[in-house]
């Protein structure tokens, strides 16, 4: 991937983060008037703050995305067997979903009683949908890596909102949904950027017909 394509992916991911964060935050503010930033209730001000936070979410999501690509490259180089790495990723996905449920179940006294099973189940269904669509766009080998990115990497990126004394349902969805959307956008776009570059390289290396 060249600098121009990376630059496009970087800014477009930040734009996705800004838009999704603003939409999610506005919906939460509409249903819960106490939800806002720095105690200011002005809708326009809060929308601008949400967009700025969304830009940060997009940048943070891209850091996690490229970290996963690096991890994927190293793991395949070390394990040599693609199915072993896929099996490890699948196990980690199940562990992460179970870990979220257990973590939220422990904090059920301060959270809604349904969140400990709704959040992992919703994340699993949404991740399955993205992974299924990705495998249709490319091949079946992309299913497990996409599932891992959408579950495990999203959880890691959103960990701050999932734990701690200040954890609440609004904060969880406010961070998880944009992170999930940014990760989905990147993984669904990646093969198009790489494919164009590979096609160009193949054309430049081709020998002219005699």
Task: Report what the structure shows.
InterPro entries: KinB-signalling_activ (IPR024164). This is KinB signaling pathway activation protein. It comes from Paenibacillus taihuensis. With 210 residues, the chain is mainly α. It has one domain. It is 81% helix and 0% strand. It has 7 helices and no strands. It is globular and about 50 Å long. The protein starts with a helix and ends in a 5-residue tail after the last helix. 30% of the residues are buried. The model is unreliable at 202-210 (pLDDT under 50).
Summarize the structure.
Helix content is 81%, strand content 0%. It contains 7 helices and no strands.
Looking at this protein, list some descriptive labels.
210 residues, mainly alpha, 7 helices, 0% strand, globular, disordered C terminus, transmembrane helix, KinB signaling pathway activation protein
Global geometry: globular
In percent, how helical is the residue content?
over 70%
Mean pLDDT: 84
How many helices? The count is 7
Content of β-strand: under 5%
Q: Please outline the major beta sheet.
A: none
The succession of helices and strands, N to C, reads HHHHHHH
